[in-house]
Amino acid sequence: MAKIIPFPASTRPSPPPDMGLDAFAPDQDGLGEWVRETFLDEDGPLFNERHAHLREAPIGWLWTTAVATNHDRQVAGQCKLVGPMSSKWSSAMAHFQLRQWFGYVPDILITISALHARQADDWAFCALIEHELYHVGQATDMYDMPRFNRDGYPILEMRAHDVEEFTDVVARYGAQATGVADMVRVANNGPTVGEARMRLACGTCMTARRA
């Protein structure tokens, strides 16, 4: 049996109710703040030290009602790093749009399907959020030591999920959070946080698999 969620359900952010068809809307209901307080702060109810490098990272959270599919599965979320602006118009246009949405250009952009969020239970929603956070890791040097920039902040990089990350998500939310059958051994020990049922795909993962 799933454990009781460690936060009031009423505090979980929701997509804007007036989003039209195929729309995109920046988070205005505190999703980013909720994620930080829930998963990144050390006293958060679902704190995960594996995301410690993201505590100070500027993350832009975006809702969308656009339907995307990959390998015949509906995409529920996608994560990407925002690169520096180049001389190409497409890059300048992307940075301009980000400033229009957030007032600045974030280092990380995470898009969440509003359609999925509205019907997902709390555990499935939390599993999706952590799944996307796991896609941003801290770069390491040739000695496997974490890298930092000249200002002392972690240097971030995109990463695919390895067995360790999948095991952690399974242990926290249950086997169905990842859809990986060979994690049954971990799941049999019982989830440490809650049982998630996320049947939709992560766009970042599916893109990596196709590549």
TrEMBL record:
<feature type="domain" description="Putative phage metallopeptidase">
    <location>
        <begin position="33"/>
        <end position="187"/>
    </location>
</feature>
<dbReference type="Pfam" id="PF18894">
    <property type="entry name" value="PhageMetallopep"/>
</dbReference>
<dbReference type="InterPro" id="IPR043998">
    <property type="entry name" value="Put_Metallopep"/>
</dbReference>
<protein>
    <recommendedName>
        <fullName>Putative phage metallopeptidase domain-containing protein</fullName>
    </recommendedName>
</protein>
